[in-house]
Structures are given as structure tokens and as C-alpha cells.
Amino acid sequence: MNAVNIGTRDIPLKLAQAITKLAQHSFENGEMLSKVTPVTADLLKFWFLPPYTDNRHINFHEGQRQSIINTIYLHEIVGIRTVKDVYLHSSPDLLAEMHATELAKEKYNIPKYAMKMATGTGKTWVMHSLLIWQLLNARYESERTGKFTSNFLLVAPGLIVYERLLDAYLGKENEAKERIFEDSDFYKYQSLFIPPAYKEDVFGFIQTNVAKKEEIGSKVTGGGLIAITNWHLFMGDDVEDESSTLDDTESVVKDLLPIRPGTSGGNDLGTLDNKYLRGAELDYLASLESIMVVNDEAHHIHENKSYGEAEEVEWQKGLNKVAEKKGSSFIQVDFSATPYDVTGSGQTRTKHYFPHIISDFDLATAIRKGLVKTIAIDKRKEIADLGELDYSAIRDENKKVLGLSEGQKLMLRAGMRKLNILEEHFTSFTKDSAGNSNKYPKMLVVCEDTNVSPFVEEFLVSEGLSNDDITRVDSNRSGEIPKAEWQIVKQKLFNIDKYAQPRVIVSVLMLREGFDVSNICVIVPLRASNAPILLEQTIGRGLRLMWREEVFKDIKAESRKNLLELKREPTTYLDLLTIIEHPAFVQFYDDLLAEGLVGEVDNDPDNSQGVMGDLITVGLKASYQDYDLFWPVIVHEAEEILDGRMVNSSELQPFTAFDISDLQKFLAVEGEQFYSEEMTVKTRFGDYMVNAALFTSESYNEHLQKLLHTITNRYARVGKRTVKLPMLQVGERQIIALADEYIKTNLFGQPFDPFAGANWKILLAKNGLVTNHLVQQLAKCIYEMQSVSSVDEPLVEKYWLSSVPELKMRERYALDITKTIYERLAYPSNKGLFEKAFMLFTDRDSEVESFIKINEHLHSFAAIAYIRNDGLLSVYHPDFIVKTAKKIYIIETKGNDKINDDNVRQKQLSTVEWCTKTNRLPLMDRMDRQWEYVLLSENHFYGYSENGASLIEICELAKVSETAIKGQLFA
Fold it and tell me: pTM (2 decimals)?
């Protein structure tokens, strides 16, 4: 059989398409939510559905969502136990196209899922989500189905990715080498990953149960384990360099003497002990009843083909050992942007994808959706002439490197020229009043080997760069320098986006994976290799977005269209990755061009318009104080008076999803049982109990406080500060008393004593369903209570709109407005003509004193809480604030098709009630004016304005009344 016809080819990608179609249909029609566990249903709703997605500025994109949903669908609903099961369920016809023996291998007789996700599209966040899904189900689901585990092994391909995983789970190291959990992914993005009811569980588990590679098997953990290591755990030695440049003599010595004494080689007594215990670590992992193994950059697990036979690499052999005797309780999840092997060359070259790929979010889709940088090949004439030059390093007859070729020097000069242009304009555009910038573009030079990289560094210095401008990280550098120096290099690399220096990173292979910075804008590939995986990984280092702010979204989309579809010069160089063309990569580039993945750039931009497009920075006017406005936030009332009666706990709905006797069954025994075990021969000794303080009256009170905090607060940006703002304003003591009485009398439809034994933990049972019910009931009644409250000497915070000193906007969509604090105001580039007309009309009206268009991302304090029609709490930002002699109008402009939307009506009711409450404040706390709410449709605006109505007349005709809204809502 021809080699091209053997193997998987692109069959797994077809499988992934079929799975995605089935899983998405199941999720959208509600089948998935009804069939998964309540824990999983909670997570899916929190991750992917309104109002949760509406109330945060960061959400999973469709590629991440696809991977998460596909995995949960196959694992929970279908209940697959082998990779063959996936094919049989999702697309049986594809089995006939597979090579007969492929899926019969032992390593595929387990639940095994591979995610193909383009570099830079956030596969780590999918990893985090799947870990949370498994952990919480293992903890809260009483039925032991074998589908869930609280043991995890995260495997990285090398040092860089390993360090990144430690950063993600434990937080980055500070100067004292202490890891700060507040810098971890789980803490920073908790509003995305973790429903509030589960936060303590997830945080507590991660902070106590993570084991670094040297701690596996020796660290005592309770209730589970997150072991983080690199693949060298499975090897006989601890070499970190995957691309050794040792000569033949050194290789022989290394084979004969795999452990060499001396601390300079990292082989002190502790290191030797680690090598001796390596087998014990695998034995420990193999002894666990269940485990989920997550392989990052999993293309390294591929088989080595030698003399026509496939041989398992050590990574896979180690996994096989851990999987022994676990059956379907061993779950494997693989992540890679390039999950394939290659056979043949030239016309017969074929990619063979991993057979267990269940989701495929490819680079083409990621680029077109703007989730990664757009790629441009620098095709200027002097680079095109490179084909006439030697682009390999100059070597003598013994292949010793003597220097760089003229071709290599030309490529480096071209890269530096592009970098200099980007630095000039990026820095000036983002510079603050103190002269500091937060956008520092970088250039990555990928060399032939470690013998060439010193010459690259020397040449760049000769071209005018300082030593501080350059960081060189060779593939075997961590083995050549002391550990302390590596720690310094590591910190410099991982924080490189924050600083102006270094400007250039020179490397061989050390940084091909895990070097996940955002500011790589220019890549100079001096390597002559044309292996597809290496080329894709080289480009992958620069794909992560540098300009993520919402204001840049439209101009970047326009630039992508120009470059990829219209074949024009880009509109802007924001998030444009420039590759200096290398003749050895011509075929690779042509393939990318044919797929519409890259564009070509013929000339350097020679002015700011060419780099930044028409983006401008707009500051405050010299006379901004004449037009400034503030947004009042009632922090609390010195004395809170409820005009209406207090809500009685008997009026709240009881929790009926589970009977209280069922909930009690889900409680764990008091305390977690631990034991000690000697590592090498597994002698067990010293059983002991660890009683959790969770079951004390203090913790019940703490739970009430957390309920209060969840219901009554939100966070917003005010200038450069993050502040806590109240969502609802009533007395905290009344809320606590109401919650306590409700829990003890009516929550379960019968008396309940939270202090009896471990009873109070029932409130957290069944994945927080009880807590979610509490939040919904209390939020709704509190909202009703505050709507009938009066104010006596309140404490009001005034958030001035001028606290945001500047805005970024597109000049083409910016208006010169007189009666506002900023030099210009922006309107949307897409369907923004209504807002444009409204601003010009308002500015001309002599009765208008000042107005502002609210930027919801920067003026995030200007928000109003409302209860959605599904009963959940949300916030929204109105469009405009307009000040006249007697009134201030909060104006929401809506298209004609949105004016009757149910949630728009809910916003109306909440805003009218907010205005009523604000109008009870002293005059000085509301700018000496009455506040009114106006909902203005496009038809009404044009109809009134074209017939000579003033802004005040339009607002009075379109203002919203509480009676009218309630009539609409309850008609």
C-alpha cells in the first residue's frame, strides 16, 4: 500500500466536524442541559449563556466553547469509553476509511480527546475549564459513575510551558521567588471560570493540592491532586533540551554516563536523588484509582517511525504506565495546534492527524475572526532579491560557523527597520502624561542553531543596538548557565511585554512553545528547515493579540479585509505579524496565501496613518470643567428608612429541586481522612483526621456575608482604578436578617437548623443549586425593597466623567462637539448614523448646556442595575447624559427593531426607579437638577427633529413613565 494512503490523513478533522454539529445541536436545543449533571449544567450556563455572558467584558470565544462543549457531550451524554466509540457514535462511515489497526492500539482504549486549536487562541483556558468540570463533579456528584476524577496530571513539553502552567495555577513569582495566587489565571479570571457558589471549593483545592514536578508522590494532599510536570518525568534523565547540539563525542559520553557529577551541570545530590526516585513518581501516579492527564503541546507524543516500524516515544510509554489498570477511569486530553505527523516529501507529503481529534479550531478561522494577529509576508524588492544571496551562515570545511551571510544580514536589517517604525508610532500613540507606554513591539529571530545565534547578537550590536536591547535564549541555555541566572532570564522573558527592553529576542528552539507573549510583531526566520510543524510553531510565537481593547476592533477588521480579501495594503499595523520572507519557506508561504491566511506587504509604512490607520487619541478640552458631568452612586444611607413593609421570609419561594433528606445524603463525613505513605515501597502509616473549620457557626455567618456581597456589589473601572460599587442600596442588617430567617424557616419548606452537625453545608450541596436559589430569591426581594425606600442624609460618591482623561477613536468616526468635555466624541462605524445625527443635533440646540456619550468600557461606573425578565440580576449602560437648565436626561437610543424587546422594558423600569431614587437626593448630589429617563427610537427622533422640535421637547415626548412600562410588562 502506498505510504500516502496509510494512516489517518484528514479523517479526524472530518470526525471533529461531525462531533461539533451534534454537540452544538444538543446544547442549543436544551438536551445537553437536561442530561448532564446539575454541576455541569450550572457550569455550562455560567460559561456560555446570558445573563452571565452579558455581565462581563471577557467571554469564551467560539473555538474554546466548541472544545469544552464537545468534550462534555462525548464524556457525559454519550458516555464514550474508547476512541472507537467516538467514531461509532459520531460518524461510523469514517471508520471504514481509517487504517484497520489504528484504533485497536491499547492507548486508544480509553476516553481520549484531542483539541486542535490554533496557537494564540487560548487552549489553556479550555484546560482550566475541563479541570473545574471534573473536579466539581467528582466532589459533588454522589453517584460514582467513573466519569469524574479529582486527580490531574498536567504534562508540558519543556521548561517554558512548564513554567507557564505553574504561573497559571499558582501565580507568577515575585522578586522573592514567591508565587502570588492573585496573579494566577483562576484568580484573575474568576468571573469567567468559576460560579460564585463554587469559588471557595476551587480556590481551596488549587492552593493546597498543586504538586510541582519534584513534589509528585511526596507532597501530602487531601481529596485529590494537580500534578504539574514536563515530559522528562517519563525519561531516564532530566535533560531539558529537546534539540541537543552536542557533537558525536559528547553524545557518546552522554550515553555512557547519563548522570554526570557536579553542580554546574545541575547534578547535585538532590538531582541524583530525583533521578533515582523517577520510577517511584510514576508508580505513585499509577497507583491512583483515577486520573485525568492533560498533555499540553501534545504533538510531542507522536510515534517515531524507524525502519518502517512505529516506536512509542518515552512520553507515551510513561502515560501507558500511569493508565495501567485504570480502564476508563484514565482520561486523556491532548492540546496542540499541530496534532499531526508527516510522511513523504514534495508532492507525496501527507499530514496524518491524531485519530482522537474531537474539535478543530484552525488558524484560518482564528485569523478571519480576529482572534489572533493577521500575518503579512514582507515582499519588498530587496527581500525578493534574497534568492540571489546565500541565506545560510558562512561555515568552514568542518562546518564551523564563521559568520553571517549577506542574505541573513539583509533579513535582519529589514526586520529592524520594520520594528523601528512600529516602536515609534505604537509608543507615541499609547504614551501617558508621564511619558510611559504600555505597547512595546518586539522582534523574534529564530536561528539555524546555537552556533549561529552569537553571531546574530554580535551583528545586531554592530547595527546600533545595545546589549540590553537583545536577549539570547538558546535551546540548551538552561543547562549551560547557573540556575540563578536562568531564573533572571526567565523573569525577563515572561514579562517582556511590560518593558521597552529587550527589543529583540534571539533563539533557536527554546522559545518555539510556551513563549506566550503578545508583543512579537516581527519574525525573522533564519532557520533553513521547511518542516511544516516547525514553520507553524515559528509563526505561532507571534500570533497572540497585542491590541485587545474594544475600540480597536473595527479598524483591525477593516485591515484584515483589505489585506486578505481585497489584496491591498493594510489599514493599520495593529495586530499585524510581519514575517521577513525566507526563500526556503516559499512553498509554505504559497500554501498560506492560497488559503487566504496571509497577505503581502510591498512597502514599509512611512507615516502614522500607515501604522495606526486613522486612530487618534482624544483628550479633555482646556475648558472641560464647563461641561463636566458626574454620575451619582449611593454608597449607603446614614439612616435607612423603608417606606414600605419589610418582605417576610414566608413570601419567598422554597427550594424544591431536591428534598432536604436527599441533600443530607450528599454531605461528606465530618473531616477528610489522610494517611502517610512512604514513596519507594508504599508502606502506609499514621491514619489521621483533619477536621475542616467549614462546619462551624463562623462559617455559616461567613456564608451569609458572601451572599450579601454577591447580591449587592459589582466592580467597575474609574480611570485607572478598580472600585467596588453597590448594585442595590438597602440596609445590610435587614438583608442578613432576612436571609437567616428564610434559611431557618422557609428555604426547605420546614424548620432547618444550620448549626446542627454539618447541616449548614447543605447550602452548598448539589453544586450550589441551593445557593443559586438563595441569591435569586434575595436579589429579587431586595430590589423590590429598595424601590420603596426613602433617603435621609445619604453618602453619595460622585464619579466625574472627566476621571477618564482620554479616549481612543477613529478620526473618520469622530465629531467635533462643542458642548462636551472631550475634544471629540465618537460614534459607531457600523450602523452609527443615528447616534451621529443625534449628537450633531444636540450640540446645536441652544437649550443644551452639555452632554456626553458614555463609553461603557471606560465609564463603567455609569451603569444601572436591573432584573432581567428571567429573574437574574444584570447591569446596563445608557448611551447619553444630556444636561439642560432644569433637567438631566439619561437617554437610550435604540433601533426601531429593539424598542419593544422585553429586557429593554426591564431596563426602562429599573432606570425610571433609579431616577426616582436619585431625585430624592439633595440638589447638590444630583447637579441641582431633576433626572429623567428617555428611550428614543430612530423613527421618533427623525420625526420630531425634522418637524422643528427642540431637544427638550423631544425628551419630554419620549420620556419613560413607570405606569406605561408596567402596563407593557404586565398587559
Answer: 0.74
